[in-house]
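Input/output pair, single chain:
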Amino acid sequence: MSHKVVAHYIGGKVVKGISHDVNAQKPFCHIRTAEQESISVKLSDLKALFFVKDLAGDSKRDEGRCLRRTTYVPGSAANRS
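Output:
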């Protein structure tokens, strides 16, 4: 089965394409880009791998939206509900 994916590397590089072999149990997958280049991707080099509907993206999307980031402090009262 093929998947449209966007790979975000830890260093900031982004690769978009189609993958037929994404498997969390394997250290690598392959992405075929729009230029028909096949790239071997080491999963441990990635910050995130997104499964997407469209490789073009959404120019109307507000990139400012995100979950609030917090720091977990063991035993802190702020962690209790």
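Residues 1-55 form a domain with the SH3 type barrels. fold (CATH 2.30.30.100). Residues 9 and 46 are 4 Å apart (CA to CA).
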